[in-house]
């Protein structure tokens, strides 16, 4: 069945009439002026348009031979469209809960389905493809396969390529160029206006790491090089790390969760040339003693890496002062970087800062975690970002898993470090979830990969570290291109 061109033209004219597609001078959230603005939320108020949209989207799928068992709309604008397609064609629908990012404790996907079925994703507007991916991932997590994505308008800013790189086929009823063609032909746009929209679209292409914008704003900033990020931070430790990564050409942090301090020191000497950070859990080592810090600092100077004691402080400010500065481990004396949960509130940062700032240390906040069922998401992640902004001198970044889904202005000079990395993906028996270095750096927008068992459990840890280093660095340089 071919798609009916007249029906498509009529739909374009109606979309223009109801101002779902507007031309003029629009200031986007980023401050960029755009000659085009697309807001498809309005179509719910025009039943004829909604019916036509759903009909055309179904037609394009059938014309392209897409096959699927059920369908799921990307919240929210595409939900009524998916509902219409479901009703008209007797195709079961599923719903993704946008609020529930914690797939472990609540159902992220509602509806009846069985693992192994193929689900169609329905979206109203695609810019970079990022919002589509946010729906594909929870569908995959519950065992549904996604092969096809249908969209009303494709802004032709890189979304199709991004989805294709995830083995997803994009079926667009209206590539933006088609909208322009019809509106020009029908006298709704001048040739000059068409040219200026085309120029704007060409100048605002999104890369594979860009965060999408459902509001139709092409406002994704280009990924900055590590050296440029060094200029954007007020924390000395972050500055040092950015510059170290740039000059040493590595974004690999090894999580050295070995059994003894002696093994750790040996591993640090062996892997030192490959890494930018050595991450420790000093309470894992029964032979920890007062020489630990100085030995490690010596190796850090020899091989040029930084030390990150992954202490995950989580107490009130007054208590963490002692835990960080003194006690058994005297962490602040030898660890350049440490981290904290934000669950106690910002007092924990005040406490740690009172010890670490004068020593030139940096703090990472746990904004997200790699483990299944983590509670660190949504409003919690946002709270971490807010707290970081209140302490730019001491907070140097985050432990995060998907910073590309955060608002772009949240990152800048802050370092994003991501654990749960293995070349083969997968997970462990206790809830750890792994992503590949390519995905973590490229798609998820992180800056540093944290790799533990993938390296220290390998038959040849130094060779494995070299392999992870290359994968992480290649993903970073590809993201800059
Ligand atoms: O969310 C997190 C945060 C951290 S710091 N998930 C994690 O796995 N980590 C740490 O990263 C964890 O404590 C361990 O040291 C490392 C991951 O190790 P792997 O062996 O699973 O690669």
From TrEMBL:
Residues reported to bind substrate: 257, 279, 370, 432, 452-453
Top-rank lineage group of the source organism: Eukaryota
Keywords: Decarboxylase, Glycosyltransferase, Lyase, Multifunctional enzyme, Pyrimidine biosynthesis, Transferase
Domain Orotidine 5'-phosphate decarboxylase stretches: 251-468
Listed pathway(s): Pyrimidine metabolism; UMP biosynthesis via de novo pathway; UMP from orotate: step 1/2; Pyrimidine metabolism; UMP biosynthesis via de novo pathway; UMP from orotate: step 2/2
Keyword Cytoplasm (UniProt): no
Substrates-to-products reaction catalysed: orotidine 5'-phosphate + H(+) = UMP + CO2; orotidine 5'-phosphate + diphosphate = orotate + 5-phospho-alpha-D-ribose 1-diphosphate
Segments passing through the bilayer: none
GO BP: 'de novo' pyrimidine nucleobase biosynthetic process; 'de novo' UMP biosynthetic process
Active site residues per record: 310, 312, 315
EC number(s) stated in the UniProt entry for this protein: 2.4.2.10, 4.1.1.23
UniProt xrefs under SUPFAM superfamilies: PRTase-like (SSF53271), Ribulose-phoshate binding barrel (SSF51366)
Family: In the N-terminal section; belongs to the purine/pyrimidine phosphoribosyltransferase family. In the C-terminal section; belongs to the OMP decarboxylase family.
Annotated protein name in UniProt: Uridine 5'-monophosphate synthase
Organism: Micromonas commoda (strain RCC299 / NOUM17 / CCMP2709) (Picoplanktonic green alga)
UniProt lineage: Eukaryota, Viridiplantae, Chlorophyta, Mamiellophyceae, Mamiellales
